[in-house]
Specification:
Layout lengths: L1 E3 L2 E3 L9 E5 L4 H13 L5 E9 L14 H32 L3 E9 L1 H11 L4 E5 L15 H7 L4 E4 L5
Parallel strand pairs: 3-4, 3-6, 4-5, 6-7
Antiparallel strand pairs: 1-2
Amino acid sequence: MRRVPGFFVVLLLMNDSNRVLLASHGTEGAQAAERMALQLCGKGSHIHQLVVVPELWRGMTGDDWLNNGSTRDKFRRYLESELESEIREHVERVRENAEAGEIGYSSEVMVGNPEQCLIEVSERSDYDIVVMGSPRPKGRSGLRSRMTTEPLAQRLSHPLLIVPFPDG
């Protein structure tokens, strides 16, 4: 058993390296999950970070105020560029922290339903644990991706650790 602040987590390992699937998109709660995933891993472990862009971003073209196709396309490209830049920053931060701890790292970005994407990725590989942040508390600003845990609890074949939202 490995002591992690606030948690006792038992990982039954089939081989010498831990494989962690980290669902993280850079929000405050997701960063708490990132820190926990890094704490759970030792040298030689591996973290695979999944960043899910919720389906609602596909339709973010501002049709209500952009009145021609050219302007909408230009605005859509701007939004995509900003989103890509933010994702790159999040992925780079986790990669650097993993490498500093001599932890292997890989990542992927998907667009779709967050629960479905996480289930799909979890089925592709044998992970020791899936780590994600808890929902943002009411009254905290930010976009809610509305990840629901019930489908995850029913369909994940790996242990799921939901890290509490950080105080402050």
